[in-house]
Design a protein that fits this description.
Layout lengths: L1 H11 L25 H4 L9 H6 L25 E5 L9 E8 L5 E10 L5 H12 L5 H7 L1 E2 H14 L14 E5 L3 H13 L10 E4 H9 L6 H7 L11 H18 L7 E4 L2 E7 L7
Parallel strand pairs: 1-5, 3-4, 5-6
Antiparallel strand pairs: 1-2, 2-3, 6-7, 7-8
Length: 291
Amino acid sequence: MPLLTSFLAWVKGLNPTTAPHGRNYGCPFGRLVCYDCAILNGMGTLELDDPMHMEKFNHDCSWDLQVDDSNLNKMRPQNLDFFLVLDLEGKVEILEFPVVMIDAKTMEVVDFFHRFVRPSLMSEQRINEYIEGKYGKFGVDGVWHDTAIPFTDVLEQFEDWLTQHQLWGKHSGGFLNKAAFVTCGNWDLKTKVPQQCKASKLKLPSYFMEWINLKDVYLNFYNRRATGMMTMMKELCIPSLGSHHLGFDDTKNISRILQRMLTDGAVISITARRKLDRLDEVDFLFKNRIR
């Protein structure tokens, strides 16, 4: 495995690149087998240059936005420094936990975090059936089985990632530091994360107490009701990248919607916040919102 070892060393030494406005607002890592994060986790068995694999999947983490320099004049100051675009996969338990970190001022992708998640309450037979149905059609079921880890481990690694970027402190706790999650709907953080924490016998982490539902911001900014990601992309004439319902591909597409809204002049602010004395209850901060 010397080739893989040297590749991992190269990945760890990468620094984000600065892309000119109006050209490329993508990931500094380029073609890096995004949702095949077996490589990034150092746990994988996939060969990067497998011709059948590369023919079937485009793992490009970069994307172009056709934004004229004149449109950048519409951009408004944001109250946050970073957006963490999150789109979970898995109805019974969480199967995929992808996050794209976007700089609120430059719109550039700073980093990304991705883990496949192994359910804690399902039998191996049910897991195999579930993963075959969910990921088999995309050809990444083998990657899932090779790399999926328990949700408890995912959150521990995610907290290390947040701490590395100074967005949260393991010892200090509290809300995120000048950052917020961005989701396409309330389900991910209002419903699914608390359910998974209960299944995994975890206390709900403090950084999951508030979030931005991009559909609510979209409704109030454009005065158009969008039922989901694909509707927003169609209305904004943004072509879809990758495969819908692959978590990392969906986070890329939601990130592109977010970037477009920023260039159009939207202020992206918190839309939902948990009541600290009753964590099962949520205050929705926008009067005009998607229900």
